[in-house]
Write a structure and sequence with these properties.
Layout (H helix, E strand, L loop, with lengths): L2 E11 L7 E11 L7 H15 L20 E3 L4 E2 L24 E15 L4 E7 L8 E4 L9 E5 L12 E3 L9 E11 L1 E2 L3 H14 L2 E9 L5 E12 L11 E6 L2 E6 L6 E7 L6 E7 L3 E5 L5 E10 L1
Parallel strand pairs: 3-13, 4-11
Antiparallel strand pairs: 1-19, 2-5, 5-10, 6-7, 6-12, 8-9, 8-10, 12-13, 14-15, 15-18, 16-17, 16-19
The structure holds calcium ion.
Length: 316
């Protein structure tokens, strides 16, 4: 008999009220942007397309630029350790990676951010704060986007004259100061954190540290107006593990809507089958189908409707 375990329920509010700001943080394992390869720009572009349109899930085992979702906000140490010495190759804990990774220098945990506001806002007044639960709080740092400009990593969209998203008059904000050029949507590859190891011995020290302290990393992004008033905030916590067996096979769900289409991306690994279900009240669930991890499922909805999604993984 097949048994199922409930993986996750995700909330979608389809009807925004006037003046509402929504924030979304997506955690992902990124290639090291300091490596002399095209992995980072390709990964960043795939990640930002995922934030805008859903989908674009890849396999880090074969492609260093693959954009993947973490399984239940858990990341393996191998996926967030970088080398910093030129010529020291590193990919997922391996200092002699295969040909496809020959120029890579490890990876970081990245926190992609999307802010959407019915009123135009200035992304330069977004701040970020990172801390970790280990005794040394090794990832602690904070800062803001003030003084920066729109770029390939920091993209804006204005709703245009009709004041509505996803219509012909939308205007991308591609250049100019984040402190003076407003947008209704701001998407960025966000902040990244990682351990540093330039040798197998250093890597083993980090592995021991992670096994001992089992740290979590938390990021908080805050949106302010130009006067410093807090308008909205969002946080995301990711657990770091040193052993693959500690990573659940469960899937994160990532949701993106475009008009009446909802794109649900099922994270997790491609060897696991997930039953995707939806509900308007958390009591009665209907099944949309069975999908492998990494799938992108499109679901049509009514315009004014609150929906929950969940994925059930088959227990072997
Ligand atoms: Ca528009």
């Amino acid at each position: 008999m097949k048994k199922y375990i409930v993986i996750l329920a995700a909330l979608l509010i389809v009807t925004p009220s006037f003046g509402q700001i929504s924030m979304r943080i997506v955690a992902s394992a990124a290639p090291n942007s300091d490596a002399p390869t095209e992995a980072w720009p390709n990964y960043r572009d795939a990640g930002l397309r995922h934030m805008a349109e859903g989908g674009f899930i890849g396999d880090r085992g074969s492609n260093p630029a693959a954009f993947t979702l973490l399984s239940n906000d858990v990341i393996h140490l191998d996926d967030m350790t970088v080398s910093t010495t030129s010529g020291v190759k590193l990919w997922r804990g391996n200092f002699s990676p295969g040909e496809a990774f020959a120029g890579e220098m490890g990876g970081r945990l990245h926190f992609f951010l999307e802010v959407e506001s019915t009123n135009s806002f200035l992304p330069g007044y977004i701040t970020w704060q990172i801390s970790s639960s280990d005794p040394a709080n090794i990832f602690i740092h904070s800062g803001s986007y003030s003084g920066l400009e729109y770029s390939l990593s920091r993209r804006g969209v204005s709703y245009g004259a009709d004041g509505r998203p996803n219509t012909f008059d939308d205007v991308p904000a591609l250049t100019g100061s984040l402190n003076s050029v407003g947008a209704n949507i701001y998407r960025t590859s966000g902040r990244g954190v990682g351990f540093v190891a330039n040798s197998a011995a250093e890597f083993e020290e980090i592995r021991t540290y992670v096994r001992t302290h089992r740290p979590t990393v938390t990021i908080t992004y805050r949106v302010h107006n130009a006067n410093g008033t807090l308008l909205a905030s969002a946080s995301k916590t990711v657990r770091i593990v040193a052993d693959a067996g500690e990573i659940p096979t469960a899937a994160n769900l990532s949701i993106r809507k475009n008009g009446r289409q909802v794109m649900v991306t099922v994270g997790g690994n491609s060897q696991t089958q997930y039953q995707l279900q939806t509900s308007g009240n958390l009591r009665n669930w209907s099944t949309l189908g069975t999908f492998s991890g990494g799938s992108v499922v499109t679901n049509s909805i009514l315009t004014h409707q609150m929906l929950f999604y969940r994925a059930l993984a088959t227990v072997q």
